[in-house]
Amino acid sequence: MTAESDGVQRARRRRGNGTVDGFDGRRLSLARRLRGMPRTMLAARTSVTAASITQFERGTRPSDAVLAELALALGMPAEFFRPGRPIEQVPASAAHFRSLRATPAASRDQALAFAEIALAVVDVLEQYVDLPAVTDIVDPVHEEPTPDEIVATAARTRARLGVDPGPLPHSVRLLEAHGVVVLRLPPEIDTKVDAFSTEAGHRPLVLLSPAKDDRARSRFDAAHELGHLVMHHDVEPGSKITERQADQFASEFLAPTAELEPDLPRAVEWDALLHAKTKWGVSLAALVYRAHSIGIWSEHAYRRANQYLRDQGYPEPGALGPPESPYMLGAAINLLTEAGRSTSELARVSGLTAEQFHDVISAGTETNS
């Protein structure tokens, strides 16, 4: 008689163990993506195949023994995979990534899993704290808006958000004040991910890259993602066209041309440009681009200025200080702590681990900005 293969023997043992009474396949998928682990890698660390993991994520229940293996491989308590509070899904088709083509799919999946965890944390916080109401900022553009139409959209958005004429004091705080959840991506997320935004959940969500240790860049990224939330509702993400539109929106939102132009020198004068950088909170590279795009500088002056900036390297001259930092979630937790509620209690309510809950709160807490 032919001896049974190892695979058949393992299958027999799994069947003998029985299946888990309560199991949520979505949570298995979430934990796996949050660890940045493809199904093939998870399978290699357990006694099941990648195809079996796919079936588990679709709702097939594993045995208790297999669940214990999966939990161990993912560094999660087995209780995490039991049915609990629903966790909103954030599909890739509903997220605008700054550098979509340069970002590996697994890295995007990991970042999207963090976004789902973040929405779950926010959902719990809203049971106890009144977070700012979400302002209706949607102002869709047609497929090929002119530059003037995007300028007008940015102006309407400033007015809708109550922005006074002149420089914007704090772009991240402004978004939070109007109900947008802003977070820094945690350091374990691939730095190729960059910033991204989504409306897939019950609140708009903007995630900023922690790798950009520059205030001007963080301000521009926040304004760029705001541009997507305003203009690209239900628009397929990832095209160079929509990214350029969001860039133009960000430029106008942070520094409207009519207000910025008097501060731009008519020739390449770096002292004047540094003064404009400090006043408006935008980079020298952005100011050089604006001076050329609105017709103040010639092509020759534009090229010469860019060559100077390339020679200077990064960071460019005139540092503005640390990146802008989110505030809202940290402030909410402080209120709840003062009221006697612990983060461990809130994590239990959310159905998340204490580590996951802490990571989200840390990502939404003010640092040094």
UniProtKB/TrEMBL annotation:
It comes from the Bacteria. Gene3D superfamilies: 1.10.10.2910, lambda repressor-like DNA-binding domains (1.10.260.40). InterPro entries: Cro/C1-type_HTH (IPR001387), IrrE_HExxH (IPR010359), Lambda_DNA-bd_dom_sf (IPR010982), Rad_response_metalloprotease (IPR052345). Residues 1-20 are annotated as: Disordered. GO terms for molecular function: DNA binding. Residues 28-81 form the HTH cro/C1-type domain. Belongs to the short-chain fatty acyl-CoA assimilation regulator (ScfR) family. PANTHER family: ANTITOXIN HIGA1 (PTHR43236), BLL7220 PROTEIN (PTHR43236:SF1). This is ImmA/IrrE family metallo-endopeptidase. It comes from Phytoactinopolyspora alkaliphila.
